[in-house]
Design goal:
Length: about 210
């Protein structure tokens, strides 16, 4: 732990995670650090964006998979409403696609939740100082795994196809023709190297592309 720098010099934190136990644990651990202060907690991405605009935290610890507005979209919005807030993604899902998406959205760091408490606190300090912090193993894997090959529309229809919806049902939701939806699904199947849409969903999900 760093020496006490005084309350005025504390790094103000916002923690966004849809699991109450995780939120509480992170807040309790980080509040033990003399130079870190938890200024707010959010249970989903939309709440994180609202609180970021309200309290202007120095660093937001952001989960990836949350209901409604996910961590990637929340990161993008927070960078718009509170440009001074740096985002450190802290997630269970160590997938190269998520790392790339988070960085593209403006995140300054990406680490996994089993990171030791002292390393997490140090990651917060490094991000606050303007440095980028990436999980080493995941960063290396990302270099070799390639960028997300799916277009925005392909990602959208694959996400909707995940629960077994028909092309017609997907088309009605996204205001496209069923034929266009089938074309997007076919393209996604080809880009993922899958043999059918179910496998394409599984591959894209495993890689963090959707």
């Amino acid at each position: 732990m760093n020496a006490d720098t005084g309350a005025g010099d504390s790094i103000r934190l916002l923690i966004a995670d849809d699991q109450a136990l995780v939120r509480g644990a992170l807040a309790a651990l980080l509040d033990l650090e003399a130079d870190l202060t938890v200024s707010g907690v959010a249970s989903d991405g939309a709440e994180a964006v609202r609180l970021a605009a309200e309290v202007r935290p120095d660093v937001c610890l952001m989960d990836i998979q949350m209901p409604g507005v996910d961590g990637v979209e929340a990161t993008r919005r927070i960078r718009e409403v509170s440009p001074g807030t740096r985002v450190l993604v802290v997630t269970t899902f160590a997938r190269p696609g998520y790392l790339r998406s988070a960085l593209d959205a403006g995140a300054s760091g990406f680490i996994v939740k089993d990171t030791p408490a002292e390393d997490l606190a140090e990651a917060v300090r490094r991000v606050h100082s303007g440095l980028r912090v990436l999980d080493p193993a995941l960063a290396e894997e990302s270099l070799f795994d390639g960028a997300n090959p799916l277009s925005d529309r392909e990602r959208q229809v694959l996400r909707l196809a995940a629960d077994g919806r028909s092309a017609a049902a997907i088309a009605a939701e996204v205001f496209l023709s069923a034929g266009t939806v089938r074309n997007h699904l076919s393209a996604a199947i080809g880009k993922t190297g899958a043999v059918n849409r179910a496998q394409a969903v599984r591959i894209a999900s495993d890689k963090g592309w959707i």
